[in-house]
Amino acid sequence: MQTIIILDHGSQYTQLIARKVRELNVYCEIHPYNKIPDLGPEVAGVILSGSPCSVRDENAPQTDLSFKGRIPVLGICYGAQYMADKFGGEVIASKIREYGRARLSHIEAGNKLLKGIPVNSQVWMSHGDTILRLPEDYTLICSTENVENAGYKVNGEETYAIQFHPEVYHSTDGLKLLKNFVVDICGCGQDWTEASFIDTTVSNLKSQLSNDKVVLGLSGGVDSSVAAMLLHKAIGNNLNCIFVDNGLLRKNEFEDVLASYKDMGLNVVGVDAKHEFYDALKGLTDPEKKRKAIGKTFIDVFDAQANKINGVKWLAQGTIYPDVIESCSVKGPSVTIKSHHNVGGLPEHMKLKIVEPLRTLFKDEVRKVGKSLGLKPELLNRHPFPGPGLAIRILGEVTGEKVKILQEVDAIFIENLKREKLYDKVWQAGAVLLPIQSVGVMGDERTYERVVALRAVESVDGMTADWSHLPYDFLAEVSNQIINRVKGVNRVCYDISSKPPATIEWE
Ligand code: XMP
């Protein structure tokens, strides 16, 4: 398969380059600059990412460029400065740090990389160094008002470099530039689509797994569901799915999702383990201890169930690409790794081999594949839901009674979001049960009951988030319904904190 290799020098934008290349239906992989894979005939081109470093730093990443001249190369920002510096040019610190929007004031006519991009096109700059002088044999291909050497080409080679970031939204013609590189210069066929991914993956899974049995834990989330569908397509009923009711799911979720899985033809067993989880959570108030207890109980329950499957050889997981990309530590990793790990790994004694059919996909690609495999919209478009479930939305000790109250509150909130067509506008929403009681009045009586907080956020990846500005009338209606219908709750608050400094969950 034709592949573009992106060599990461630690830029915060490296993943974005990969996403843009894939948007062009071209397959690409990210590798650290100092662990270059074998660049065989399937490698159609190499992109050198930016970096938080300066080429003048003592510890600046040194990339082995022995492929330059043989394979088309596109250097971006640091990648551009690095090649210029290494081959006899001069890179100096800019007098002013160039950050933000700029416009291309000159474009070399007929240049393949810049084909179809007009003078004045907006580009995004983010650099502290500038290329003062290009090496001999390098030709200037574009400039901005402040940066003369904004782009160059190496004569006689398909090697190009640009100082700005085409992968960033603010570079208006950035995608066109990347397309010029991967399609026209590297000759990639734009044939990496959901359909081709499904065909290749299913056929690889067939040969990898043959007649072996595989076990997979379903969570109700998109990743595990799509992984299950792919495996089911490849090996049918040799895929054994386990869906555990940890007693911490949303109202009716276990029954509804289990029914959907059965509808999809999956060979799935539902395990009611509510009481094991509640027992494990008894007396625990520290959020991390709660998470650990849930993780451990899950492994015990899953293990016991998996052991009932005769001769199972593989454990399938819904791992996706952002979990796999090896982070490049130039000045800290380029990828912020989430600290939330629900399942710390299965017991050694199971001796299962691991199969991860989604390990090359980004989240949005998993959704596209799921859609194309016919995954129901209820499963496809769900908000993210934390592995420890409602346990981290019940502050303090978790009990079955508190779970029931929170399930009712949460269900009213979510139903209303759906009814008012707000569900898909919000990235994630839920309710939190606070460990306090407040005074209220109902009829002639004074009440002393629980307080809940509603949380709804806008986000792209959960790393940062802003609170959703839901309409007041909507919030008023939801609050009324909760207080009137959920016994034991007499006060509703709306969380208006953004992340950072707050987080999405309260624990
Ligand atoms: P925070 O609270 O860190 O949440 O802003 C960011 C995203 O991660 C989810 N989250 C978790 N997911 N196990 C998970 O699988 C966890 O322990 C966990 N804690 C938070 C949270 O729901 C949000 O989508």
Structure description:
The protein has three domains: 3-185, Rossmann fold (3-Layer(aba) Sandwich); 194-380, 3-Layer(aba) Sandwich (Rossmann fold), CATH 3.40.50; 399-494, GMP Synthetase, Chain A, domain 3. The strands form three sheets. Strands 2-1-3-4-9-8-7-5-6 form a nine-stranded mixed beta sheet, with helices on both faces. The protein contains 13 helices and 18 strands. The two termini are 44 Å apart. The longest helix is centred in the middle third of the chain and has 20 residues, at 287-306. By secondary structure, it is an alpha/beta fold. 30% of the residues lie in helices and 26% in strands. Xanthosine-5'-monophosphate binds next to loops.
Radius of gyration: 27 Å
Mean pLDDT: 93
The shape, in one word, is globular
Strand order within the widest beta sheet = 2-1-3-4-9-8-7-5-6
Write down how many β-strands occur, each being a DSSP E stretch of 2 or more residues: 18
- What about the largest sheet? 9 strands, mixed
Count of structural domains: 3
So how many helices? 13
Just give the CATH class of the largest domain.
Answer: Alpha Beta
Q: Report the span from N to C terminus.
A: 44 Å
Roughly how much helix do the residues carry, as a percent range? Answer: 25-40%
Looking at the overall shape, the CATH architecture of the largest domain is 3-Layer(aba) Sandwich
Structural class: alpha/beta
CATH topology of the largest domain: Rossmann fold
- Name the poorly predicted regions: 332-344
Classified in CATH, the superfamily of the largest domain is: HUPs
